[in-house]
Each structure stands twice: as structure tokens, then as C-alpha cells.
Amino acid sequence: MSENKDQKFVYDFTEGNKDLKDLLGGKGANLAEMTNLGLPVPPGFTITTEACKVYLDSGDEPVELRDEVSAHLDGLERKMGKKLGQADNPLLVSVRSGAKFSMPGMMDTVLNIGLSDKSVEGLAEQAGDERFAWDSYRRLIQMFGKTVLGVDGELFEEALEDAKAAKKVTVDTDLDAGDLKKLVKHFKKIVKAEAGRDFPQDPREQMDLAIKAVFDSWNGERAKLYRRQERIPHDLGTAVNICSMVFGNLGPDSGTGVAFTRDPASGHQGVYGDYLQNAQGEDVVAGIRNTVPLADLESIDKKSYDQLMQIMETLENHYKDLCDIEFTIERGQLWMLQTRVGKRTAGAAFRIATQLVDQGLIDEAEALQRVNGAQLAQLMFPRFDEKAKVEQVGRGIAASPGAAVGKAVFDSYTAVKWSRSGEKVILIRRETNPDDLDGMIAAEGILTSRGGKTSHAAVVARGMGKTCVCGAEELEVDTKRRRMTVPGGGVVEEGDVVSIDGSTGKVYLGEVPVVPSPVVEYFEGRMHAGADDADELVQAVHRIMAYADRVRRLRVRANADNAEDASRARRFGAQGIGLCRTEHMFLGERREYVERLILADTDEERDAALKALLPLQKQDFVELFEAMDGLPVTVRLLDPPLHEFLPDITELSVRVALAEARKEPHENELRLLQAVHRLHEQNPMLGLRGVRLGLVIPGLFTMQVRAIAEAAAERVEAKGDPRAEIMIPLVGTVQELELVRDEAEQVIAEVQARTGVELTLALGTMIELPRAAVTAGQIAECAEFFSFGTNDLTQTVWGFSRDDVEASFFTAYLEKGIFGVSPFETIDKDGVGALVRSAVQAGRETRPDIKLGVCGEHGGDPESVHFFHEVGLDYVSCSPFRIPVARLEAGRAAAQSNGSDSR
């Protein structure tokens, strides 16, 4: 039951508007908006998401709902001059889902509600078309049986295929009224056998059961999977739209289609969409019958085409964005069934945003909100090398761009199974349906032989940023035999490698080599933002990035450990280095010096090992400071446990055993093995590492500080501008930091005295332990900057060992909804984020000018960047490749907060 007796659960299309998406869902809100605009929308009403929430929470619909639905149904019947399901002049309705966020094909829809053994005759007489009436009836039983009664949809499909085979036809439009009557009878038998009940003849029972089925579909497996993939909250619920039916399957002067006000794949303006004569809307989306381009409608029905073009212009100007439109033509009368802001590819998003600015529909701040970091990352993926020798075997519709290579698989189960085993796969189907979602997520790309840019495969792939080629008709897909026949008779078996180009629609045998994206070349300075068509995308990216850089408050630094990475990061727009991990400088040939340090039995041996490391470290820093001249470079002193620099214990044990068996000298290996045993820890990531190493091993941190100071002095003498910052890792108490800082200041003073160069080296720490975050006010007394190490902070807050838990139970936690997303991917705002927030506040209360940043992987995660902007950090630091993404999201965060402030 609902708690508020006055709560309204049903809204007529004339009552809502596009701003009520939370309540009416996207579909209902936009149907109401089109009704308000005076566009031809079939009358109807919407059951709110609040009613769905009551139903899902209590297991039953609100007690008021039935009466409200009855009242609105009475009004609809008066408006239409018909009654639901009456025998002589039946009103038929569709029952369609419609959540706040678009979830294409993930929830349920039932068309033609109100048809029965009696009303089908009335519909035939009303329409003057017996075949149409029986075709509509078989569609209802098929959709209702699968959606509402849980009958296996394949049983209906097989019966339909058998009927076509018996008639020796290939498309369902070639079945006549007599064939369809027989099919209806067969379908009803399937329902009785599989559902244990007859197909309901009472039209109100049909509608009530369909409404509940749509509510239930919110928690269907495919809907939950899609929400997890798209990060849509699970507690929103879906609205239900009851709309009077208009029919596109009334003959050649009727049809149905999907239109876009711009190309959702490229963003270019023009006439884009699909049309299918003598069909209902589900036929277009399902891709069962191949459509004709929307432009062909002009020659088929000029009056409807011209009216549709005018409506599309009206909607785009009203919504100020690319609109995705569903429409039906019933005997020459155009009806609008849906509109929404359309899903688009990453490239289209950037192009459309700048086009709309040029048209004066939106400003630069709004354009920045129309794109995101995930889309920019997609544009940075490699593309196929056009100069490579390739074997093209087909071409379809370029539905969603990208260059995807993988082994051919022909069902979702195999796609998921092989993907989990580390294989890259291409999912190949005749057409996809919502049940294929898990396979589509697992695959590198999707290839279908049917459907167009508005088919299920295309729409879902674009939404996920997944490469997709649709409607490759020359390819014959045989899912039962797990093979695809290509022109000329060649066969692609399951497991064969194929390559698909979602930008051109081309399909190739074998692996096609890739080349860098032009967007990456632009960021690296190898391509300039020109105005010609080839550079149109680069130009759009350039314009939006320039605006993001102008408005963002957060600076963006790089995680880089050598001069090469630093130089690349600088080309990508890095404003310094936020994390230089010095342990990476101890690898390779330098391991022997670390081994000597670990094996040292005397102060002299230890000092000799450190002395040998000093010039090597210094030269690394000289090169790094040169690459980042004039920009800050935060150098983290040695952090990982020393055992990581020693050989594997098993490998070393075998070497010692073999040497002993052969009576060969093995004193050094034996000492190493003893050291490995001595340094062994049950949980080394919580053991002797970070600041603890600097306090336990005399001279280790002072050697590193000396190398930094001497390198900085050398760069100053060379007229450079080094801006080094020394970061002490894994501090848990201010006393640790004080001890290391005292030693560091002595070393810096010695270098200054010896070189005569005045050095300004900031000293700070990583906040990566809960205790450090909680006592940040104390630590700030000794630290000039904090850098939040959110990887380790996440591990220590959650009690996770990342290497272990991601492989063992994270998948289950994501599936069960415990995580919406991995806390290592996007910062856990309630837990880890709360510590960051409190540490920022405490640090600034103690030291108002303290510099605050983050250098964990979250620094390049779009959602996390917004959080770091909100809590007031000064910069984020991330891998070089993610710098453009962080720059863009920092700009979006600033623009959003500025918009909120102005409101």
C-alpha cells in the first residue's frame, strides 16, 4: 500500500512535461512534451515510477492505482470513441516501459492489448483488412506469452518459421489471413501448454497483467546487468505508458520507423534513420526484416516525409540536441510514438556539441557537459591501418566506431566464457536481442547480418561505446553450426580471428594491424586542429578541450618515472608530475646494488651500496627535472618492501639446491636465500615498507634526498628551473615524518653549502593510511603538501588485498549489487572519500596554504575527478594516457559547479 493517500500515480499525456523524468520516466515525460508542443501523439497516460517502487517494495501495486487507471482509461475511451477490447469497435493499447534513463530493449513492452477472439473480428471489420487483424492478434499472443506469461520466445519463433516454410515464403508479410488464423490457434496452444493457462480473453486482465510484467521487468536480469554496465541506480523504478495503438501494419501506405535528427554515428547533419513498410515498431528495432533508409520515405509517402522533417527540426530546436524519434504512419497519417535525446558515438558527441554552439543553440559551457571523459578515452583508441594488406569479406552499416579484433563466437554464453579465459572475441549474430547483453559486454565488438543503425545491436553498442557493424547482408550467419559463410563460399568457423571496423562497416578475415588515433596524434602535437573534413573531429576535440582548460580549477599532473614518460605527459598537457615512483629506478641492472644493500653485514658495505646507487639516481632526476622544467615534480621515496627486489623464493631455492648437488660455488645465492627468508612477511604490504624503510635502514632515504637535491642544483646551474617536491610514503604518525624531515633538511643544507645553489624543495607526505587521514591536522604541521594515495587508502579502509580480491569475489559483489562499481576504479565516496574530505579540512585548518593532490589511479577516473574537485584538492595525477580525460573532467566539474552557483 502507498503511505500517502493523496499521491497521484497516473498522469495523462496532457499533464506532464520533459522535466518530470524522475516521475514519468524518459518516455512518458517526452510523450507529454510532444503533446504540449501540439505534435501528433496518440492519446494515452503514464503510470509513475512511484507506483513501480510501491509495487517492488511491497509485492503489490498501490491500492489506489486500479481506480486511477480506470478513470484515465475511461477518459481515453471517450477521447477515442472506442472501448478497450469491445467486439465491434475495439480500442487497443500498448503497454510500454519507460525509465528515467534510456535502457533500450532491456525492459518489456506489449503491443495490441485488447485483442481477443471476439475483438479481432471487430478490428478486421473496422480496418477493412482481415489479414492485418489476425497479424496483430498473433503479435499480441507472442509478446504477451513471452513477456507476461514467461513462455520461451523461441517456441513462437519456431512456429512462425514453420508456417513460412509450409507456405514456402521467407517473410511474414507473405502469410495471408488464413495462415495467421492457424498461427494464432497454434500460439494459444503453446501458451496453454507452457503457461498452464489459456491466453486471457478479458482485455482489462490483459492490461493489468502487462502493467505488472513491466514493473517486474525492472528487476529482470538483463535490466540489472545493463544498469550495472551503465551505472544507472537500481532504485529508480520504471514508469509504464499506456498508449492508444496506431498501426503501421495496415498495408503499403502504412509503416514504422526510427529517425535521428543527426547521424548518431558521425554527428553529421542529414536524413538518418530506417523505415519499414507494413510493419509495427518492434520489427524495426529487432532487425528481423531489413529496412530501407529513411530518405526513401520521400518517394514512398512525400506528405508524411515532409511532415516528419518539420517535426524533427522542431524537436531538435526544442531539445537543443540530437533527437532519436520513433514514428508510425497509419494509412498516410503520421504519429509520433517517442522521442528522446539520442545515444551517440564518442566522435558524434564532440562534433554535435560544437555544431550546436556554432548554430547558437547552446553555449560552450553546455557543450562541455554534452561530452565526457569516457567518450574522449574511446577516441584515443587505435584504428585500423589503411595501408595494411587486408582480406575484406563483407561490409555492413557502420553502427558504432572502433577497430575490434577477436575470435568469432556465435552466442553470448561462449563470448562470456572465452572472454573470462582471456580471449578477445567478436560476437556474431543474425541480429541481437536483449538476452545477448552479457555477450555484448564481454565482446570486443559486435557483427550482425541483419538490422540497421536503429537495430538493438546498434543502439546498445553505441550506448556502451562498443564497436559494431550491423546489416552485413552478404554474410550468412549460421548460429546452430557456429559458422559464417562469406561471399565466394569461404567459411569463418568459431574461433577464427576476424576484424571489424565500426567506422566504415568493413569486415576482414584475420587480424588487421592498428595505428594511433588522430586524437592521440593531436594531443602529442603530431596533428594540428585544422578545418578540413579529415580533421573535423580533431577540431571539435580541440575546441572543447580548450574551453575545459580555461574553466577548470584542478590542475592535472602525471604519474611518470622517467624522462620519456614525463615528456609524453607534458605533450598531453600535464602540469607537472604528481608521482615519480623511485622504486622503478631500482629495477633491471640496478637490482644488484639493492641486493648488495640488503646483504650488507657492515656499515661500510651498506654505505658502499648506497654510494653506488647515488649517481644513478641523481642522473634519473636530472633527466626528469629537465623534461619537466618549470613544473613541479613530486618524487616519492622508496615505498615497496625490499623483498620485491630479490629473486623469487622458489626460483632461488632451486638454484641453491642445484648448486649444492653439483658441488658448485653458491655462497651469494645462499646469502640471498637467507635474506629472502629474513625479509619474509605474512602481509608485506602492511609490513616493512615506506617510511619504515627509511627509519630502519640508515642512509637509504638520505641517499635519495641527496640525489634529488644534487640533481636540482645541477639543473639550476644549467639555467634550468627544477621544482622538486619530496614525498615520504606510508606515514601513519607525525613523529615518523618529523624524523625523516630532519634528516632531509640536513642533507639539503649540505648540498646547498657545497654547491652554492639555493634550493627550494618542498617536503610532504602521502596520505594512504586511515590513521594518517584521521590525524591529518597533526601531520600538516610537518608537511607542506599531501598527496592522497587512494589505491592503498582503499585497500586499508576496506581491508582488501587488491591483487587477491579482484579475482576472487569482486565479480560476485558487483552482480549482487554490493558494489555499483569497483572501489579501485571509482572512489568510494562514503568511506574512502569521507576520509579524504576530513583530511583536506583538517590539513587546511592547520596549514591554510598546504598543497593537496591525489596520485592514485582514481586521479584519472572521470567520476572521481568530480569528487576531488568538490572536496577542494589542488590537482589530480594520473597516467600520461589519461591526462586528457582528467583535463576534460576537471573542466566539466568546474562548469557544473559554476552552473550550480549561478542557480
UniProtKB/TrEMBL annotation:
Looking at the keywords, is Nucleotidyltransferase present? no
Q: Which residues cross the membrane?
A: none
Keywords of the record, alphabetical order, are: ATP-binding, Kinase, Magnesium, Metal-binding, Nucleotide-binding, Pyruvate, Transferase
**InterPro entries cross-referenced by the UniProt entry:** ATP_grasp_subdomain_1 (IPR013815), PEP-util_enz_mobile_dom (IPR008279), PEP_util_AS (IPR018274), PEP_util_C (IPR000121), Phosphohistidine_dom_sf (IPR036637), PPDK_AMP/ATP-bd (IPR002192), Pyruvate_phosphate_dikinase (IPR010121), Pyrv/PenolPyrv_kinase-like_dom (IPR015813)
Q: EC number(s) for this protein? A: 2.7.9.1
* Residue positions binding substrate: 581, 636, 768, 789-792
Give GO terms: molecular function aspect only: ATP binding; kinase activity; metal ion binding; pyruvate, phosphate dikinase activity
Q: Which SUPFAM superfamilies match?
A: Glutathione synthetase ATP-binding domain-like, Phosphoenolpyruvate/pyruvate domain, Phosphohistidine domain
Top-level lineage group: Bacteria
Q: What is this protein called?
A: Pyruvate, phosphate dikinase
Organism equals: Streptomyces ficellus
Task: Print the organism lineage.
Answer: Bacteria, Bacillati, Actinomycetota, Actinomycetes, Kitasatosporales
